[in-house]
Specification:
single chain, alpha+beta, seven-stranded antiparallel sheet, 7 strands
Length: about 140
């Protein structure tokens, strides 16, 4: 199963409370969610356990990528867990967890997503999330 899981650890030059808010507040999330060159024209976010979320990422070519899920766990400002389902594959539910650890004035974030259908899907998500997290770092620096 390890080949169907993705883990990314990043350290952001921002306080933990701010990094957590960037993941859980719609106005902040909309500024960085999606790979570089993507926009987020639609976002509904009810970030509480049992709350639903839905988003549309629009690629540079105009293609819309719809996704949705449910918040499973919210422990401010330490942890967030939610399901992720692509509308194009509604039978496949993945679980995402994000842990935020204070490191002085910086924040160590560990992102985990599982269970992918394939190694190729995992690798594609790694590229997308790495790009998104670059956007998050830029947003936090602004």
């Amino acid at each position: 199963m390890k080949d169907r899981e993705l883990t990314i650890t990043r350290v952001f030059d921002a306080p933990r409370d701010l990094v957590f808010k960037a993941w859980t507040e719609p106005d902040r999330l909309a500024k960085w969610w999606g790979p570089e060159g993507f926009a987020l024209p639609f976002l509904e976010l009810d970030m509480r356990p049992g709350g639903a979320w839905r988003a549309c990422m629009r690629g540079p070519d105009g293609t819309n990528y719809w996704q949705h899920g449910v918040c499973r766990e919210l422990v401010p400002p330490e942890r967030l867990a939610y399901t992720l389902i692509w509308d194009s594959d509604p039978e496949h539910e993945m679980l995402v967890s994000v842990v935020f650890v204070e490191r002085g004035q910086k924040t160590e974030m560990t992102f985990r997503q599982r269970l992918f259908k394939s190694v190729e899907s995992r690798d594609s998500h790694r590229d997308g999330w790495s790009s998104s997290l670059n956007r998050l770092a830029a947003y936090l620096a602004s």
